[in-house]
Each structure stands twice: as C-alpha cells, then as structure tokens.
Design a protein that fits this description.
It is a single chain. This protein is mainly beta. The chain has two domains: 225 residues, Jelly Rolls (Sandwich), CATH 2.60.120; 73 residues, Jelly Rolls, CATH 2.60.120.10. 13% of the residues lie in helices and 38% in strands. The strands form four sheets. Strands 1, 4, 14, 15, 16, 17, 18 and 19 form an eight-stranded antiparallel sheet that branches. It has a six-stranded antiparallel sheet with strand order 2-3-5-12-7-10, with no helix packed on it. The two termini are 18 Å apart. The mean pLDDT is 94.
Length: 310
C-alpha cells in the first residue's frame, strides 16, 4: 500500500515557456524556460523520481520492479513493458507538426505499433489554439510541395481551445500545440512519430530541423474531416489508458481496488490527500501515484484533478 509524491524529470526545447516554473510549482528547476515536465515516466534518461516515503529518491521503475502487481494492478498484465508517458507541456511558440502512423502502417513497415495520445488543455491565452488536421483535402503531391516550400501552414486547421477541453490525437492526424497553450499530454510511451513541418525554424547552428516528409505523406490523413472517437463517458478512453476529471469541492472519496493504480495530476486548486494517518498537501502541478493495492483515500479542498488509470 502506497501513496507517493512524485518529482518529474525536466526537459527544455526552443519553443518552451516559463509558466510551469511560475504557476505549476516547478520552482526548483534552475532555468527560466521549461518546456516539459515528465510526470509519469520510466524513460531511462528522463525518469520520474519518488519524493516521499520509504522509496524516496528511487525511480518509478525501481519501485515497480520491487512491488510488481501490488503497485501496478492486475490490468497491467496485458502490457509487456511500461506503457505510459504523462507530461505537462508549455508551448511559448508553435510546436512542430507531427503525425503518428496507424497500427497497420507501422506493422507493414516493421515499426512499433500504438498511437494513443491526447491533450487536456490546462491554460490558453486568448485566441490561442492547436493545429488539428487540415482545412481542405490535399493530395500527397500538394502536401509534399507545400512542406518543402514552407507554405503548409495555410491548409492546417487551427482549432481555438479553452481550459478544460480534451483533444484526442489519433493515428494519421496532423497535430501540434500552438503558441500560448499549456497542456497535460497523456500518450503511449513507445510510438512512432514523424515531424512533418516546423514553421521554418532552424537549429541553433542555423541548419533546418529534420523533417520526415516521405514517411509522413503516406501516414497522414490529408482529408478535412477528423474521425471522432467514443470516450464511453470518460474524459478520454483508449486502449492504453483512461482519464477522468475529478472536481473537488469539499470532500471527495476515491479508491483503488487492485486492478489499476491511480495517477493524479492537480491541474487547478489546492487540497489535502487524506488516508489513515497520512495528510499530504497537494498544490497545482503536483503529481501523485497511488498503488493499486492501496484502497480508500480522500481529497479535501477545492480544485481539479486528472485521474489516470490503465
């Protein structure tokens, strides 16, 4: 039984902002620009670290290796390895346009299958949005020409967003987070992605960033309509993960039942997590892991939490 406070890995890129440090309790990060915080990660280079209890200082993977099903739950048996990546992402500039191929395309090419990914909008400046598909049908030839001419932006669909929106980025969808948008990104850990378009940006040495145009033009949906996905009453529901939003206004009772862990991200407000003698203060931006065998716990206060399960 465990409730663990998590310390994310920090990651920077040229498009990042400073809101995570200033507004999401990441003030221990030494730099000014903070693009991403990896809140639930077993990546060897960017692991999430446990920041409370007897496992403090160990990585999540070390904890999982020791505790196994007690921590992860019985539903984890369907995975061969750790499946999830959960991040806060702060886009001060437009992020490059990417596309994930379908399972069928990936299998044909001998690549990793699986493309589950979504964005929960935590914050957005007025008139900010995401790039989400295309506004008109284009041929593969037109696509390639516009990318190489740096004019592809004119056919991208720009979707204004609001706090609390969720967007599922399915296979074949051309997508990118726009400037002024801060999201929680939940996705399948191992997935194939092709960078398609980067708004003419160059690397610090002046050379263009690498694009994968040939692969992308065969994998992308180049038609206007984006396929809808049934979320079955959840904020997001797909093969790899499920997300629910918990609105806390007073006291809210929650539990794990042995089938899956709970990963909580506080996206707004302040509250207490209560379980037996444990009283853990939670603030905006905090991430908490509750083991599958823990049982009952309670949130007390006011705010919003994303609850991620498998």
């Amino acid at each position: 039984m465990a409730i663990l406070r998590l310390k994310p890995a920090y990651f920077d890129d040229i498009w990042g902002g400073s809101k995570l440090k200033k507004e999401y309790n990441k003030s221990d990060y030494p730099g000014y620009v903070l693009s991403e915080t990896w809140e639930l990660s077993c990546d060897e280079e960017h692991p999430t670290i446990i920041d409370s209890g007897s496992y403090k200082g160990k990585t999540l993977k070390e904890y999982f290796d020791e505790e196994g099903e007690k921590a992860l739950g019985s539903k984890y048996s369907r995975f061969d390895e750790w499946p999830l990546s959960v991040k806060f992402i702060d886009a001060h500039q437009n992020i490059s346009i990417k596309v994930h191929p379908s399972d069928e395309y990936a299998e044909e090419k001998g690549l990793t299958k699986g493309n589950d990914e979504c964005w929960y909008i935590c914050d957005a400046l007025p008139n900010a949005g995401i790039f989400y598909g295309v506004d008109q049908d284009v041929t593969k030839e037109e696509f390639e020409k516009m990318v190489r001419d740096n004019t592809f932006k004119k056919v991208l669909h720009f979707q204004p967003v609001n706090k609390g929106d969720l967007y599922y980025c399915g296979p074949g969808l051309l997508h990118s987070i726009g400037a002024g948008v801060l999201v929680v990104e939940v996705k399948q850990m191992k997935q194939v992605k092709y960078r398609v378009y980067d708004f003419g940006r160059v690397k610090p040495d002046g050379s263009p960033r690498e694009l994968m145009i040939e692969e992308a033009k065969d994998a992308a949906i180049l038609k206007k309509n984006v396929p809808a996905k049934d979320m079955h009453g959840h904020l997001c529901d797909c093969d790899t993960f499920t997300i629910d939003k918990v609105n806390v206004n007073g006291e809210t009772d929650l539990k794990t039942d042995g089938t899956t862990f709970n990963h909580m991200l506080v996206v707004d407000g302040d509250m207490l997590l209560l379980s037996g003698d444990l009283r853990m203060e939670l603030n905006k931006g905090n991430g908490i892991f509750i083991s599958a065998d823990h049982g009952d716990y309670k949130l007390k206060g006011h705010g919003e939490v994303l609850l991620i399960t498998i």
